[in-house]
Amino acid sequence: MFETAIQKFISTNNFSEFTPKAIFFDMDGVLFDSMKYHARAWTNAMRDIGIHFSEYECYMNEGRTGHSTIDLAFNREYGRDATEDEKQEIYRIKSRYFESYGQSSVMPYARELLQKVKNQGLQIFLVTGSGQVSLLDGLQVHFPSIFKKERMVTAFDVTQCKPHPEPYLQTLKKSGFIRSEVAVVENAPLGVESAKAAGLFVIAVNTGPLDEKVLWDSGADIVLDSMEVLFQKWENFHQQL
Q1: What is the C-alpha separation between 181 and 197, in angstroms, rounded?
Q2: If residue 126 lies in a helix (H) or strand (E), which one and from where to where?
Q3: Cα(64)–Cα(163) distance, rounded to whole angstroms?
Q4: Which of 21, 94, 112, 154 maximizes the CB count within 10 A of its CB?
Q5: Poorest-confidence range of 142-151, 167-176, 198-207, 211-220?
């Protein structure tokens, strides 16, 4: 599985080799089991202002910044972007709902995988479209000594959100590595599109309700069923490099 995907990636990009020195991790749905709360919060916040926004849409648009998600809904409903005041108010409502659901749990096997990656001497970077402060702050609580501020790109750092390649291109620049030295772990279609648009190798973990075909169609090099499966198969991936 991994060998075929890696050889295809090398051939497609005309690389002489693929030797990852850094792994770029998404956050929601990869490190935290938080997407169910994001989806519920967005659905309820949009309902409060009279816009229908399904949980399925939330999963399909996971990876967008909050403001981009609001613009998406407003353009569909009203044919325009939301004003800055509208964005601030709606995101405030969404955040209030999100925080009311309690603390998101760590995705099973996320800690174990991160520790294994760190022990192998690979650098770890975070690439998320989230601006949810409680989750970002929780990285230091739940993954101590893993994430460093200078190795994070969040909603506060970009002007173009996923599926635009900017988040991954910015992280690539920050890392100092080249494309053949990076692998990405994502769970969202737009995140996969963003990373592939940046020319990176993407392992997708299907931790949500979407059919895995959506992740394949988004361009993922590998699709696995869960973070547990990725943890179990990580040595196999690492040995192919």
Answers
A1: 16
A2: strand 123-127
A3: 7
A4: 94
A5: 142-151
Domains of the chain: 2-33+107-239 (3.40.50.1000), 35-100 (1.10.150.240)
Q: What strands lie across the sheet with 152-153, from one edge to the other?
A: 152-153, 123-127, 22-25, 182-186, 201-205, 222-224
Helix (H, G, I), strand (E, B) or coil at 92: helix
pLDDT at 241 over 70: no
Which tokens in the block code for residue 235?
């040595």
What is the rounded distance in angstroms from the CA atom of residue 65 to the CA atom of residue 71? 10
**CA-CA distance, 185 to 171, in Å (whole number)?**
13
Q: Give the predicted TM-score (pTM) of the model.
A: 0.91
